[in-house]
Write a structure and sequence with these properties.
A five-stranded parallel beta sheet has the order 1-5-4-2-3. Helices cover 40% and strands 19% of the residues. Strand 2, helix 2 (29-34) and strand 3 (42-46) form a beta-alpha-beta unit. It has helices at residues 8-16, 29-34, 49-53, 55-58, 80-91, 102-110; strands at 4-6, 21-25, 42-46, 72-75, 96-99. The N and C termini lie far apart (33 Å). By secondary structure, it is of the alpha/beta class. It is globular. The mean pLDDT is 92. This is Rhodanese-like domain-containing protein. It holds the Pfam family Rhodanese. InterPro entries: GlpE_sulfurtransferase, Rhodanese-like_dom, Rhodanese-like_dom_sf.
Length: 113
């Protein structure tokens, strides 16, 4: 399954253009609270990757607040778990993209701004 990938630069442009951005951070709650992507036009969700992996068995996400009609950008620390989660969500008809390189790439990108 081919999942769309968005670069940190493309995400930055969306945020600067005041586009509505929906971010799903699949890292552990502690890591999310330490740092996550924020912005006035960003809706941020923190659902642990295990809950998304369990979708394969349960068919139901406990957090039903994720919209199916809008693009959801999935991120984690480096992008590996986000890609796995995006594949599961895509199979359940969510419109997903993965932040290339995850939070690590995002923080590196911000250093150039």
């Amino acid at each position: 399954m081919n999942i769309k990938v968005i670069t940190p630069g493309e995400l930055f442009q969306k945020m600067n253009a005041q586009e509505k951005v929906i971010l799903l951070d699949v890292r552990a709650e502690e890591k999310y609270h330490d740092f996550h992507i924020v912005g006035s036009n960003v809706d941020s969700y923190n659902i642990h990757k295990e809950e998304i992996f369990n979708l394969e068995e349960t068919e139901n996400l406990a957090n039903e607040s994720l919209p199916k009609d809008k693009e959801i950008i999935v991120t984690c620390t480096t992008g590996n778990s986000a890609t796995k989660c995006a594949n599961v969500l895509s199979a359940h008809n969510y419109n997903v993209a993965v932040l290339e390189g995850g939070i690590t790439a995002w923080t590196e990108y911000l250093k150039t701004k």
